[in-house]
Every structure is written in structure tokens, then in C-alpha cells.
Amino acid sequence: MKLTYINAISSLCDHTRDEDINLVGQLLGSDYRLDNNYMTATLGIEGPELIKDVLYLKHAYNETGLYTETKLANKISQLDKRRRNEFIDLMLKKMLSLKGRRIAIFSVSYKRNVLNTTRSPAISICKSLLKKDTRLRIYDPLLNEARIMQLIGNPTRMTLFDNPVATATAGRVCFWRP
Question: FRET label pair with 174: which of 22, 72, 137, 146, CA 20 to 30 Å apart?
Fold first, then answer.
């Protein structure tokens, strides 16, 4: 996948200002967000920055007539959205039904120790779970109740806890962001 990306970016370099792909490759390689930590499966692209890069590349490819590369960027966006739905499908497969289940959620933000909830998989997963008639038990040490309710909605089927042990005890399934 990384080879496909660098080749697509090489095409963009060739079609724009004739940028040096070797220099661009070095810059990309020095980006801490692209190290081996990102070779671990997740619930999709998280946070505000990486998705901006994908959207920018999609626009740049399209503007320069690199339509195959545009399709690649579009596919990345589609796969990202599908990934979160696959998680819900897996839960359904393992549990047969989610109706009435109590599910513990540990942290609503997109990564540990941050207040930023931009593109947090927990939010979209919580909304999907609520549509399946579940009851959520949520613990987030950084976000207040008003913010969580604003992000997820449906306060009648959510209970917020102020400690992780009570949250885990109240749930039957736990969703934890390491």
C-alpha cells in the first residue's frame, strides 16, 4: 500500500511543478505519523490531520488529470467509512443481537489523553450502536457530560460514569482505545 501511495505521489510530482519525488519521499518518511505504528489495523483514519492529507491529494490528483490516482484516494475514503461499519457487523456476528445490550465505552476522543474528537471512531460507533437499540455506558476522563451528549446524542440510552471500573462493571462488552 505504501508503494502505491508513493507511486501515486510520484505521478503528482511529474504533473505539477516537476518536484523531486526523492525529496518528497524523504519528507514523507520523516513524518512521525507514518511510522510503523500506522501499520496496525484500526477502526479507520482517526483524527483531523491524516484525512486532510487524503482529501488534499484527491483534489490535487483530480486537478492535474490523474484520474486513476483520484480513484485511489476516493477508494481510501470509502474503505475508511466501511471499516467502522465492519466493526459493528463483527459485533453482531459474535453476539447475534445487540438489542438491549449494555456496552462500555472507554474514551470518546480519537486517541488517549486528548480533548479532540475530530473523526473519532468511538463517536460513529456509538451512534451506530444506539441505532441497534443498545445501552451505552461511557467513561471519558477528559470530556464532560454535556460535550459527550452533544457528540453522541440520545441521553436516554447513555449513562456516563466517572471511573473506569464502574463503567466496565456496568457493561457486557467493552470498547477500549489503547
Answer: 146
**pLDDT digits over 20-40, tens only?**
888 888 887 777 766 655 545
Range of the domain at 109: 97-176
pLDDT for residue 157: 92
* C-alpha angle 112-46-89 in degrees, rounded to nearest 5: 105
Which residue in the block uniquely carries the three cell numbers 451505552? Answer: 136
Q: Is residue 7 part of a domain?
A: yes
Strand order in the sheet with 135-139: 158-161, 135-139, 102-106, 173-176
State if pTM tops 0.85. Answer: no
Q: Is residue 129 located within the same domain as residue 172?
A: yes
